[in-house]
Amino acid sequence: MNKNRPKYKQIIDAAVIVIAENGYHQAQVSRIAKQAGVADGTIYLYFKNKEDILISLFHEKMGYFVEKIEEEIKGIDTATQKLLVMVEKHFEILSEDRHLAIVTQLELRQSNKELRHRINDVLRGYLNLIDEIMTEGIASGEFRPDLNLRLARQTVFGTIDEIATTWVMNEQKYSLTDLAKPVHELLVGGCGKS
Amino acid sequence: MNKNRPKYKQIIDAAVIVIAENGYHQAQVSRIAKQAGVADGTIYLYFKNKEDILISLFHEKMGYFVEKIEEEIKGIDTATQKLLVMVEKHFEILSEDRHLAIVTQLELRQSNKELRHRINDVLRGYLNLIDEIMTEGIASGEFRPDLNLRLARQTVFGTIDEIATTWVMNEQKYSLTDLAKPVHELLVGGCGKS
Amino acid sequence: MNKNRPKYKQIIDAAVIVIAENGYHQAQVSRIAKQAGVADGTIYLYFKNKEDILISLFHEKMGYFVEKIEEEIKGIDTATQKLLVMVEKHFEILSEDRHLAIVTQLELRQSNKELRHRINDVLRGYLNLIDEIMTEGIASGEFRPDLNLRLARQTVFGTIDEIATTWVMNEQKYSLTDLAKPVHELLVGGCGKS
Amino acid sequence: MNKNRPKYKQIIDAAVIVIAENGYHQAQVSRIAKQAGVADGTIYLYFKNKEDILISLFHEKMGYFVEKIEEEIKGIDTATQKLLVMVEKHFEILSEDRHLAIVTQLELRQSNKELRHRINDVLRGYLNLIDEIMTEGIASGEFRPDLNLRLARQTVFGTIDEIATTWVMNEQKYSLTDLAKPVHELLVGGCGKS
DNA sequence: CATGAATGAGCATTCATTCAT
DNA sequence: AATGAATGAATGCTCATTCAT
């Protein structure tokens, strides 16, 4: 559906604002429409249903994540460095858009199982990025040769995600980007003494 | 209220089953009552309202988590070993009760922000347990002296949680307990080559 | 049912207090039982159901009204004087028991149509008293010979009742008994210039 | 809200019918909607909640009372005559709409204290009308100069209301309008012999 | 007589979606 | 394309009454 029309983006941006400011369960379609400056019915010219707004929202924003990060790590030599930049970039993007941070880390998690499964599909792209970095690191000898790729990916993602979520739940009152470096160290070196 | 009455536990167990099998939003009070073999009104002799059932559920079960794990690591000498046992025990308890796993990893996350905040309060006990182990590890020289305690805790919890959630979303079709050892290695040693 | 047992009166008095202080719709049987110092089930040893409590309450209290007033007007010579004493006594009894005033003038009116019909039956005794006075007044030549007895009775009762209700709705903050004399004058002489 | 839309009146009229025929406590919103020929949800486009329907109902109908009566007494010379016309008109309007009579005299009284207070606010307009007539009567010398205005108003209203209520409780099986003249005589001349 | 735990029917309100204009 | 009035399904909770003890 008409992804190129200006109202498509307009509605998604409205959804981010409404959800961030009122919470997932208070984000009625009529409210999103009002925020977007369109009639309720107009929403349905651009989205199949409410769920479609949320998926599209996540798709657009997560796509931006992957795109941005891919761009940044393109020229970098080592996997270790790439991992650092990824964490940095991830935290940076969230820090720059507090509404988006609230929506992706807190509110969208309240969606039902089916929606969350579909959101996971969208996450695929991001997880693949992690996989690529990890694979490269193993190949280059930076990471241990016996690394379980899936576990490593879940560790990296789970850690980044938990730290971002805690930051949002604490109302973003400390610097998230400052945490990138120590988090990276933990991921690469573990908590044990080398 | 009336925590010692048999019906208190009966209702909580019914809630776990109903939520696991039908999903959070399909877990009507009347359904829980039916599953528990009591009348709808009886629920309200033991719980203030529906939310109270869910909080109590989480409280009871997470309390069991902390209790069990504390018990198991009591006699263990090193923090590293304790961390391993914690991960093992965590995965073991989830593996033993597939309904509980679904409820805690997927369904309860759909609750509203207020309920999630109250659930987080209950989680405190578990996070404290992690803190204790990490602190002990630093003191004993097993873990790096410059470890950021909060980050380390979030790394440990985020990783365990992500791996458990992925396992549930994949319909628990592989062994979760088998992952305890490699996960522990990742947490302690990181993904980098030592 | 056991009208002579102390608990019968105990429960009725409890009902008056609970209804006056919490309102008709907040006067649950369990609350009345608690106030009376008995178990919920005990209520049903003395009353058929909740409605029966209210009817009995009204019966007892209105019986006291009729009894008291009959007693007072017994020795009085003229119907005009009797009417005055009736109004005075009516206002006096209400003034003496603010709980009772609230219950009879405001709260009990919220009962359903059926209950109100049965309450009207109880009122019969009071209305008969008015009828007697009016009839006597006509016979003695004090009142007009063409007086429509039913209308006269409704005028007297409607007036007394409205004035008492207004007084209760105004939180009883002026003297009701002071109004007896002017009300009596209005009833006997009308508002027109004689 | 939206008082000019045809559905506003449609719903109020439906409420009168449903309440009159089924009783206050059996007047579910869904029943009113059905009677009005609209969906349940439509009710809430025109009224804030159920209570708002009842208040609006009373407001509209009582407004009609005051309006009609004001209109009729405008050209009349004496306060005595105005009082007669007011009673006549009051009884006439109730006689013409038996449903409305049941609702205002019996059913709406079952509402809770808060709603009754708000209904009383609406009654103000009617009571003011009585006040004006009484004041005029005193000024013109038709009524006694020492008339207590508040008491007189309560006497007039209490009498009219009691007579109307009794008529409704007797299932409206005699002519209410026939009573206007004798009631008026009683109010003006009292029951005493002049 | 007395208890009080258990029962279960009943209802106002919200909001995603449609469709006539 | 755009509108927004209308729709109608779906559910947590209360409380009078019972009855086993």
TrEMBL record, chains A, B, C, D:
Keywords: DNA-binding
Coiled-coil ranges (or none): none
Domain HTH tetR-type: 5-65
Residues of the DNA-binding region: 28-47
Gene3D superfamilies: Homeodomain-like (1.10.10.60), Tetracycline Repressor, domain 2 (1.10.357.10)
GO molecular function: DNA-binding transcription factor activity; transcription cis-regulatory region binding
InterPro entries the record matches: Homeodomain-like_sf, HTH-type_TetR-like_transc_reg, HTH_TetR, Tet_transcr_reg_TetR-rel_C_sf, Tscrpt_reg_YsiA_C
Name of this chain's protein: TetR/AcrR family transcriptional regulator
Source organism: Peribacillus saganii
Lineage: Bacteria, Bacillati, Bacillota, Bacilli, Bacillales
